[in-house]
Write a structure and sequence with these properties.
heterodimer, A: alpha/beta, Rossmann fold, 2 domains, six-stranded mixed β-sheet, 22 strands, 25% strand, globular, B: mainly alpha, ABC transporter involved in vitamin B12 uptake, BtuC, two-stranded antiparallel ribbon, two-stranded antiparallel sheet, 4 strands, 70% helix
Chain lengths: 502, 357
């Protein structure tokens, strides 16, 4: 075999109290698309961050084309030819596309920035990726998908040998993903080594040649994709044997909604955010809001939780007409809401797991009725046990948890308030398979055992079909269909999203 | 040993170390620094008492400032509010030469503190409700405030001859310590009780760390921000009483001058980041005392008032450096490298010894 493009040997990284990586090996060849797989907290991101110089490593060696390297900053890594495109696009939305591509390395002419060359080369670069847009417009004119392509264009243009794509597809639709894959294959042919991180198994199997699996900061093994069946991969990721994993997919039966209506929204809407939507939510029901990003599903949830005020239609809860002015109003009606963007609107990063869990409860009790420390501890410990949140202690800072565990903390925050209606907006985004299933099962069991109503919002049809007893399908900020019973199928939803005519 | 370890990891460790270093320096180089005497009328007297006495108004300002900064805001108007409060109390008591108060002192004091709270509420309104950046919003009162104070005193320095007015920053008869130390203590206790018995700490930190998430969790972010500015105004109002009592006069131009900067510095020395979030009330109190100790030390060493800022700046740089994370990392690295060097040396010596054998 030819010499590997990248060899990482015995990589070790410790954080206070945790060993994030121990003795991990990773090999990448030129012209290869290699996936890093593992549950949340397995060490994927840490490995990438060690490679890109975000974290210094505590042990091990890294060879690039046989030469030992030791990048100390992302800039160092970039100079070595290691480029990264992160999940969240980190470009400047107020600069033009061309500026974004050349920021920090603008071609100059007589000491002045040569705008003509910049714009021309930016256009050429994007054309190579089959993206044809006006590069002199600011970045915010373009969709997240296009911004991602622009980030890739920038990453590739800096003479990259290795391209790392960290969850690039989590906010792309199918068409956009297909386009991204086309570009990846093209880059692969040019001899780039690509590290691809994603939680979508389908995508891994579609595009990757090799898979390296990590678990709890340790290497499980490196495999050829073609020789590793899916279930086996999952078994390796979660560290269970095959039969157990097969059981995991055997889903609990769906809940049976009661006749009692908890919430009745008639033609609710908000100017510029949502057109009239009718929703009826029964007790003990898991209701799904389906639709593409921006179709109005999150907007509906936000109206129901009082984040934005309803200014059309009427809303009644438990038969009483209400006007929700703020989240507290909704909380008083026993509604809880896990928002879509857990970093921005979910966790309070610098506070402990305990404080994050009791926050909503404390807000509900008011500033003067302080929950005694002993009680906080009890609530937090109960939640940690119930939801199986992986923490080193309840006083660990939430920002140091993995994504899936952060999500669980936020769910715990709302369960602690004992809601009658729990709204989960994309609760499984960016979360590993095992935790995903756990959360889906939890939604069902809450509805079944406690008679709680659950709103489940997700971009993944499968999980909606598996979990929900009713599906509200949305498009262009209005409701286009409502599916129940046997009508709930991926196919049915797709048709409804695509347009009633089909 | 265990306790020592626990303490060295606590947030108060560095502020306490900084203050201790200053105190030790003073003990060595300032004659009679630790001496405390009792006067005939039962008052304690000495440099330590003096430091505590003079740091009271700063401690109180720093308390309010801590909460404001924890919400990732800032209040640069407190110095001006001190001047306003001083003007109110002095104008109401009046500058009659025969030492008679025109209005009961308690009413005047309440009014001054009340005006301070109003000033804070004004700031809170601008920042919380109208979302004006904190520096800009409080800059308004910082510049306009002294004008307001001038208007009240009609451009005069009002000197109060009413005897009990001295008691605020001086000694009550037969009390061993000046009254303002008790006032500061009461304010610190008030805050301590609030922190212990209410969820103010949790709410303020949540708002400072992630206001969006705090709102989504049901916290009334606008109200929390409004309240911290109102409280900062209250603190400035109380400080104004002490500052005016100290000179028995309202000087609209100079009362509380530059005190906002000292208050911010005290909070920073105490370990609270200006970016908001986690805050340390105890640290701020120690920070305020540190600043005052520094000033007193400089005067004791004969540094003139004009040169004081330079020396102060140097000392502050050192203290900030000690507390900076980066500096600590560099220090740790240096220690580690020395350690391994030593080990290597030892090995070499050992190797030689083995060879010789």
């Amino acid at each position: 075999m030819a010499q590997a493009l990248l060899e990482m040997r015995h990589i070790t990284k410790e954080f206070p109290g945790v060993r994030a990586l121990s003795n991990v090996d990773f090999t990448l060849h030129a012209g290869e698309i290699h996936s890093l797989m593992g549950e949340n907290g397995a060490g994927k991101s840490t490995l990438v961050k060690v490679l890109t110089g975000v974290y210094p490593r505590d042990g091990g060696t890294v060879f690039l084309n046989g030469k030992a390297i030791n990048p100390k900053t992302p800039k160092d890594a970039q100079d070595c030819g290691i480029s990264t495109v992160y999940q969240e696009v980190n470009l400047c939305s107020n600069l033009t596309v061309a500026e974004n591509i050349f920021i920090g390395r603008e071609p100059r002419k007589f000491g002045m920035i040569d705008w003509q060359t910049i714009n021309q080369r930016a256009a050429e670069l994007l054309a190579k990726l089959d993206v044809h847009i006006d590069v002199t417009k600011t970045l915010d004119n373009y969709s997240v998908a296009l911004q991602q392509m622009i980030a890739i264009a920038r990453a590739v243009d800096v003479d990259a040998k290795i391209l790392i794509l960290d969850e690039p597809t989590s906010s792309l639709n199918e068409e956009e993903t297909a386009h991204l894959f086309k570009i990846m294959r093209q880059l692969q042919k040019q001899g780039l080594g690509i590290i691809f991180i994603s939680h979508f198994l389908d995508q891994i199997y579609e595009i990757c040649d090799h898979i390296t699996v990590l678990r709890n900061g340790e290497l499980v093994g490196a495999y050829e994709t073609a020789k590793l069946p899916r279930l086996e991969l999952i078994a390796k990721m979660v560290g269970k044997d095959l039969n157990e994993v097969k059981d995991m997919d055997n889903f609990a039966e769906k809940s049976v909604p009661s006749d009692e209506v908890f919430l009745d929204a008639k033609g609710i809407g908000a100017v510029g955010k949502l057109n009239e939507v009718d929703v009826q939510i029964h007790k003990g029901e898991v209701i799904g809001f389906a639709g593409l990003l921006g179709s109005g599903r999150t907007e509906t949830a936000e109206l129901l939780f009082g984040i934005n005020e309803i200014n059309k239609g009427s809303l009644s809860i438990n038969g009483k007409k209400l006007h929700l002015k703020n989240p507290m109003n909704a909380m008083e009606q026993k509604i809880g809401f896990c928002p879509e963007d857990r970093k921005l609107s979910g966790i309070i990063g610098d506070l402990s797991v305990r404080e994050n869990i009791i926050l909503a409860m404390q807000a509900k009790d008011g500033i003067l009725r302080h929950i005694p420390y002993e009680e906080q501890v009890k609530i937090a410990d109960d939640c940690i046990k119930l939801l199986r949140i992986k923490v080193s202690s309840r006083e660990q800072l939430v920002k140091n948890l993995s994504g899936g565990n952060q999500q669980k903390v936020i769910i715990a925050r709302w369960l602690a308030t004992q809601p009658d209606l729990l709204i989960l907006d994309e609760p499984t985004r960016g979360i590993d398979v095992g935790t995903k299933t756990e959360i889906q099962k939890m939604a069902i069991s809450l509805a079944k055992q406690k008679g709680m109503a659950v709103v489940f919002i997700s971009s993944e049809m499968d999980e909606m079909v598996r979990t929900c007893t009713k599906l509200v399908v949305m498009r262009d900020r209005r409701k286009v269909a409502e599916l129940t019973g046997s009508d709930i199928s991926s196919d049915g939803v797709m048709k409804a999203i695509a347009g009633g005519a089909a | 040993m265990d306790m020592l370890k626990k303490f060295s990891g606590s947030s108060l460790f560095l502020p306490v170390v900084a203050l201790s270093v200053l105190l030790i320096f003073n003990t060595l180089f300032v004659d009679g620094f630790l001496t405390i005497q009792m006067t005939e009328d039962g008052h304690l007297y000495g440099r330590l008492v003096d430091i505590l006495n003079r740091s009271c108004s700063l401690i109180i300002l720093a308390l309010g400032m801590t909460f404001v900064i924890a919400t990732s805001g800032i209040d640069i108007s407190v110095g001006a509010v001190v001047a306003i409060s001083a003007a109110v109390v002095c104008t109401l008591i009046g500058g009659r030469g025969d030492g008679v108060a025109e209005m009961p002192m308690s009413v005047a004091m309440l009014a001054a503190v009340g005006v301070g709270v109003l000033c804070g509420m004004w700031n809170g309104l601008l920042v919380a409700k109208f979302k004006i950046q904190a520096v800009v919003a409080t800059l308004i009162l910082m510049t306009a405030g002294r004008g307001v104070a001038q208007l009240m005193t009609e451009g005069q320095i009002i000197t109060v001859y009413y005897k009990p007015f001295e008691y605020i920053a001086g000694f009550l008869p037969n009390m061993p310590l000046p009254t303002n130390i008790f006032i500061a203590l009461a304010m610190v206790l008030l805050v301590a009780v609030l922190m212990k018995k209410t969820s103010i700490g949790l709410f303020v930190q949540s708002v400072g760390i992630n206001p969006t998430a705090a709102r989504y969790a049901g916290i009334n972010v606008t109200m929390v921000i409004f309240l911290v500015y109102a409280f900062s105004g209250l603190c400035a109002g109380v400080s104004g009483l002490i500052e005016s009592s100290l000179i028995r006069a309202a000087d609209a131009n100079n009362a509380g001058l530059n005190m906002e900067m000292d208050a911010i510095l005290a909070v920073a020395l105490g370990g609270t980041l200006l970016s908001g979030g986690k805050f340390y009330v105890g640290g701020s109190v120690i920070g305020a005392i540190t600043i005052q100790t520094l000033t007193t030390t400089m005067y004791a060493l004969g540094v003139s008032a004009d040169q004081l800022p330079v020396v102060k700046a140097a000392a502050v740089i050192i203290i900030c450096l000690i507390q900076s994370k980066k500096a600590q990392e560099m220090f740790d690295k240096w220690k580690a490298s020395r350690h391994s060097q030593q080990k290597n040396d030892n090995k070499a010596v050992f190797g030689k010894a083995v060879k010789q054998l």
